[in-house]
Amino acid sequence: MTAALFIRDMVVSFDEYRALDHVSLQIEEGSSFGIVGESGSGKSTLLRAVAGLNRFESGTLDVGGTRYSDHRRDKAFYRTVQMVFQDPYGSLHPRQTVDRLLLEPLVIHGFADTETRIARALDEVGLGSGFRFRFSHQLSGGQRQRIAIARALILEPKILLLDEPTSALDASIQAEILNLLEQARKERGLTFVMVSHDLAVISHMCDRMAVMKSGGVVETLETADLRAGRFATDYTKQLMVASKGFRRAPAPV
Ligand SMILES: Nc1ncnc2c1ncn2[C@@H]1O[C@H](COP(=O)(O)OP(=O)(O)O)[C@@H](O)[C@H]1O
Ligand SMILES: [Mg+2]
């Protein structure tokens, strides 16, 4: 197995509070890895620490043969790893046009063929060139999340970090966005690390998953094992009961 991401003993503290407590994970290239856990368990902190948005005080991160030991990230990192956030209202500047939002990463990373890339990116997320000169505040939540995904994909990364990418959206839009992500993953052979509080989403989208509690990983398992009720902790069982997608499932809870 080739690891796309190798996280070892990662620790993140906010003042005295330890939000991430020696987390280790190995995520296989081309796989879709889920992270679940109750609110405040450290899921976002983990993704943000990987992305260089939170400092980690100890531990290591390996991505594509490069080791990162603090929050500093080089350009090569962002060519490989991109993040999509839960709230597409907060993550896209409202007074920028779609064109500007997509152009910015291309300029930063020195791409020349910006026209072609922007057109292709808009097509890929199902919006088309008619959206190019709209302002982000003119778009619906689902359309904004499509732009956020286009912005992440436009640099042709290998790994997407997805922090509750559909949690802020209506149920019908959620399914569309998940399908779009799954299609992009298949076509591009991407590796996903997807956080969700909804175990049905993780079960549908991911091969393996980690269950987090109080800043630590309590177990990692195949999502097939989750579906079959083969998990090690009562905490995972409680999460399944609490997650609405599983309440209707006949077994195994
Ligand atoms: N920037 C921050 N400053 C202080 N505390 C934070 C910060 N970010 C997260 N935390 C705390 O760390 C814990 C984990 O948060 P988070 O990773 O956002 O949880 P989750 O995404 O699993 O809901 C929470 O107790 C949260 O309040
Ligand atoms: Mg979170």
Could you characterize the architecture of this molecule?
Helix content is 38%, strand content 26%. Strand 7, helix 7 and strand 8 form a beta-alpha-beta unit. The protein is globular. It is an alpha/beta fold and 253 residues long. It has a single domain, classed as Rossmann fold. Helix 6 runs parallel beside helix 7. The strands form two sheets. A six-stranded mixed sheet has the order 6-7-8-3-9-10, with helices on both faces. It has eleven helices and ten strands. The structure holds adenosine-5'-diphosphate and magnesium ion. The site of magnesium ion has 2 residues, from helix 1.
In short:
This protein has helices spanning 43-51, 75-80, 88-91, 98-108, 114-124, 141-153, 171-188, 199-205, 223-227, 234-242, 244-247; strands at 3-14, 17-28, 32-37, 58-63, 66-68, 81-84, 159-163, 191-195, 208-213, 216-222. With 253 residues, the chain is of the alpha/beta class. Bound molecules: adenosine-5'-diphosphate and magnesium ion.
What labels would you give this structure?
253 residues; 38% helix; binds adenosine-5'-diphosphate; 10 strands; binds magnesium ion; 6-stranded mixed beta sheet; alpha/beta; 4-stranded antiparallel beta sheet; Rossmann fold; 11 helices; disordered C terminus; single chain
